[in-house]
Amino acid sequence: MIRSLIAGNWKMNGTTVMLSVVEEIVNGLKSRGDEADCLICPPATLLYALSDAATGTPLKSGGQDCHAELNGAHTGDIAAEMIADAGGQYVIVGHSERRADHGETSDDVRAKAEAAFRAGLTPIICIGETLEEREAGQALNIIAQQLAASLPDNDGDAGAVVAYEPVWAIGTGKVATTEQVDEVHTAIRKQLEERFGAKGAGMRILYGGSMKPENAGALLSLTDVNGGLIGGASLKAADFLAIYDAGISNL
Ligand code: 13P
Description:
Layout: E1 5-9, H1 19-30, E2 37-41, H2 44-54, E3 59-63, H3 80-85, E4 90-93, H4 96-101, H5 106-118, E5 122-127, H6 131-135, H7 139-150, E6 161-164, H8 178-196, H9 198-202, E7 205-208, H10 213-220, E8 227-230, H11 237-248
Parallel strand pairs: 1-2, 1-8, 2-3, 3-4, 4-5, 5-6, 6-7, 7-8
Bound molecules: 1,3-dihydroxyacetonephosphate.
């Protein structure tokens, strides 16, 4: 049985006023029990405050990206160790917005995931095809290539989390169908098992892309969907908690 992870990616949204949303989420989780892991990855400026507010509660915190190096002359970047120092337990790497906006390659993503392990963080490694690639019938090939190149060989004691996020479903309101998600997640699971054996069978695979309370139940009920990576809907406590509920109702 794989423990689900419901993760919010706040992207570049939120100032300190959003700490009230954190409080609502924490209170919501307290009254719900602890059947799944719940995580928020806020902007870096909020990570320390969010981690502090989440201490001693079921809510976990994480970064949205990290640099591969431990320290050095990299203006504006954040080391994985800094995320851990600020209280984070996870870090998202290789999000399609980083791949597109910052030209990150799968080799870069693998180096970042290795840095996450070095710092004791769990990396959430994102992969996903563009609409053009899907329409050209290349979705599974692209995903297999990205997965192979982005995941470190030594996947750490805690193991990595993989997030399938079709680029065309992110922030567009266009959610992938359950058939599409099922096909991709099954292929990812097979590849993880082939590469990591029994450990690959236990790794979490999240779906991300316009996940909302209305569609979360169907997506999270698929065998190889072990949670969600949620953008827009994670900015509202009620929506995020409703997705969490949809996740645990399938356990
Ligand atoms: P949306 O849920 O806003 O589509 O974003 C998904 C995502 O990119 C999470 O990392």
